[in-house]
Amino acid sequence: MFFRPAKDGLDLFVRLTPRGGEDAVDGVEETADGRSHLKARVRAAPEKGAANAALEKLLAASLGLPRRSVSVVAGGTARLKTVRLSGDARDLAERLGALAAKG
Length: 103
Hints:
Blueprint: E1 3-6, E2 9-17, E3 24-30, E4 36-41, H1 50-63, E5 70-74, E6 80-86, H2 89-102
Parallel strand pairs: 2-4
Antiparallel strand pairs: 1-2, 2-6, 3-4, 5-6
């Protein structure tokens, strides 16, 4: 599963590609060790938190959430990140399922 329950929402596992040509979510991917994550890319460079901010904005827009409900909580300088989504966990899981199906 590419997300898990967290206090007041869900933690989402994301593999981010900065300077990816466009801001987009590209579905779910499984790594060789069996872990799953959502693939995303942003135009922003990985400098001074610009790529993380672009990721937060992309996810908020893609999931129909307020920007303040999305924040990178781990992996700030890594490609593999944990993003906290604040809100009702069941509703968030449904939104993530729909988003993953598009990608």
